[in-house]
Amino acid sequence: MNDKFILTCSGCGQSFSPSSEFYLCPDCSRDNDTKYPPKGVLKAFYDYETLSKLKEEVVKKKFWDLYPLLKRESLPKLRVGETPLYRFNKIDGDPIPFELYLKDDSQNPTFSFKDRASSVVSAYAKENGISTIVAASTGNAGSSLAGICASQEQSAIIMVPKSAPQAKLTQIVMYGATIVPVDGTYDMAFDLSVEATKEFGWYNRNTAFNPLTIEGKKTVSLELFLQLNRAIPNYIFVPVGDGVIISGVYKGYEDLLKLGLIDRMPTIVAVQAAGSSNLIDNIGKPNFSIKPSQTLADSISVDIPRNFYMAQSFIVQYHGEHISVTDEEIVEATKTLASNTGIFAEPAAATAYAGMLRYKNQQLLQGKQKVVVLLTGSGLKDLKAVSSIINIPNAIEPTLEALKKIF
Prior knowledge:
Blueprint: E1 5-9, E2 15-16, E3 42-46, H1 48-53, H2 55-60, E4 85-91, E5 94-104, H3 115-127, E6 132-136, H4 140-152, E7 155-161, H5 166-174, E8 178-182, H6 186-200, E9 203-204, H7 212-217, H8 219-227, E10 235-239, H9 244-259, E11 267-273, H10 278-281, H11 308-317, E12 321-325, H12 327-341, H13 347-361, E13 370-375, H14 400-404
Parallel strand pairs: 5-13, 6-7, 6-9, 7-8, 10-11, 10-13, 11-12
Antiparallel strand pairs: 1-2, 1-3, 4-5
Helix pairs in contact: 3-4, 4-5, 8-9, 9-11, 12-13
């Protein structure tokens, strides 16, 4: 039995013992309507009082006491996390008037941030003797789960909307997972995967459903704490779709606060595509309203932000900020990022960079401020999205004379 943590409802505050068959608070989720974000999403809580007395030991063990797992050996052999944090001083040749850091999570095994969640979910399933895991995905979570399961000798079943990018579907198939294209949206695939979980007894990896996904995603904050030598960033720009990544970033820093390792929360900026901004548009509103998503940033194209209530709670409690950027800004940010840093990010990741650029241009970032941008996926996952700005010239004759006409 795993007694390292308990699960607490982010709504009513009830606590529950963890179980591989337990996902949402039974009371708060009883009246959930699939047309709206679910209530009753759970958070993992640890013995912070005891751990705060041993906090330096916790740091030495790279925060293993804050993992919902019994054995490190349960994690996949693939290196997940410990991704590089790069400092850059110029954009388009101009000095940056603040400290800019890029956290490149495209260097995870399946080239996206989602491996952090998949690795923890897979390890927990392994410790509980579960061999089949299901997920709904627009591509990244699915390819992530498929790859991690392949390394763990587990079976993955991935339900995807038929519009998912070909590169991500290719990844899923190559990893040997069972892919189920759904004639509908991501939200429809999500609902079907939940029904299948109940019917077939599979373990479900869905974000804002399985609470351990947040525990996996929070590890980025713990890494930043170490990589920045315990300094707290002034700003962290996070791409936002269903609200789970940003909740994970908050959860990691909240854990550090509870251990007494930091004394304040960084300002975390939720950046959404203007064509898919249902999370930030509803913050503070009494009634949730939905507008159909339409953005080239498929990884954050969500009609119903499944982790809305927890994300909203974090943003309000810790005075977070939010902004939306257009698809044009996202594509331009992808190009600017790649040409200035050598990091080719997919549109969802470049969304966070576009948000940072907007803040920079509005002179909201100054002086010695430490600014972190989370880059959550590789641009190779969705080449079609940047096709409008790509111009590959025609072939030339293999002669020096032909080359001189160019140069």
